[in-house]
Amino acid sequence: MYVIVVGGGKVGYYLTRTLLSEGHEVTLVEKEQGRVSRLTPEFGENVVLGDGCEVRVMEDAGMNRADCVVAVTGHDEDNIVVCQMAQRHFGVPREIARVNNPENEAIFHLLGIRETVASTRIIYSLIDQEVGTGESLLLAALKRGKIVIVKLDLTADSPAAGRMVKDIYLPGECVLAAILRDDHILLPSGTTQLQSGDTVIAVAEPESQHVLRDALVGAKPSRAG
Amino acid sequence: MRVVILGCGRVGSTLAAVLTREGHHVSVIDRDQSAFDKAAQRLGPSFTQETVRGIGIDEDVLRQAGIEEADAFVSVTSGDNTNIVAAQIAQQRFHVPQVLARVYDPIRAEAYREAGVKTICTTAISTGLFHDLVLGRQLRGIQDYLDTTRSQPDAQEKAG
User: Fold this and answer.
1) The complex's ipTM?
2) Rounded to two decimals, what is the model's pTM?
3) Looking at chain B, which residue has its C-alpha nearest residue A90?
4) Which member of A184, A215, B64, B92 has the greatest number of CB atoms within 10 A?
5) Domain containing B158: what range?
6) Contact B108/A85, CB-based, under 8 Å?
7) Domain of B76: which CATH number?
8) Could you read off the pLDDT of A153-192 as tens digits, one per residue?
9) Of B72, B90, B80, B88, which is closest to residue B121 (Cα–Cα)?
10) Which residue from B57, B105, B111 is facing A104, i.e. has the nearest CB?
């Protein structure tokens, strides 16, 4: 795969290094001479000096044949323009943009950049997960942290133990995907009765995790108590 | 008319002053307080009714400047990409009826013009004007200079 990375900061550096080590063809575009000088000993001709928003620089970097463009500069507006130009002017099939200010994520999507990575928000939700949600364990984060898969273990004290799924109040933004009971997988329906010892696998939006946890295994005891 | 201007440099502040003098309601956004101070020194403190400090692609800042009621939005910061992105937000997010962006890079200006953003490329305009003046040619309409595909003088020769 041919990948063009725009922005030679930390993210751009490690991304380029990883992609190269996996055997991909990579060009890293960086507009500051100082950074290019530091990157060249390691990456050689894979580093190009230039403004990744300039069409000429993009052409020289081979944007016409790129399979993917990754814009990881520290400026959200630059990342947006790099992706839009790659999309519209060069017809690159795939663009991925780094979102620096998490509040800008909606703007990226509004302006046609579907794939975004907002590291601040991802790190925040991982921390929130650790600190905030006791008995629910994060198994996976999908769609760049907007959907999570969590595991909840029911005990005799859990409010959901002994109740049918349809009688449990669940926020709209979550689904119970499976119940693991004695090495078996049950697909939950409304009339499935949950039991102590069940492990529930749920898919949810991060914001509804707390409500989900409260409904199934109960509120986490306060740390002060 | 209610106008929001992003960027309080020479163009932004002077445009604000002209519109304000004509009785329009103008607010100017800039990330730098000193830009407002300089403009007030050059043009007098009443060059605009409102100044808002902040980043132009921040929706809250745009709202604070009154973009939801704006009839026009003009993006004239020194950064092409900031202008391009802010103009698209004004168009697509806030549905401002008249949106204009200055873009220095002629290629980017044209690419976004084709995509429906009204871009004004001052590089193309000044270059075209100087070019015609240097060669003693008659000056053309602004639109001719903006359209870089037609700015080749040979393709531009008109009868008379």
Assistant:
1) 0.85
2) 0.75
3) B111
4) A215
5) 122-160
6) yes
7) 3.40.50.720
8) 898 888 899 999 988 888 778 889 999 998 889 999 889 9
9) B80
10) B57
